[in-house]
Amino acid sequence: MNSPTLINHTVPKTARALRTSPVNIYKLILRGELNAVRFGRRVVVTDEDLRKFITEHRTNGAAR
User: Which contacts (CB < 8 Å, 24+ apart) does range 51-58 have?
Assistant: First the structure.
């Protein structure tokens, strides 16, 4: 039985994808706006959670 491949993004990789700083990603995680998983000292964001965050924060072509 094949299970789906999980893609996990580190905080720096997530920051690069969203063109922001790692500090801002940690703030989003702490506020509960972006889901993350902690493995010991490592914090990762699943691809599914990153895509969900982007979809939920998408605008109609205009910046807020």
Answer: 53/28, 54/18
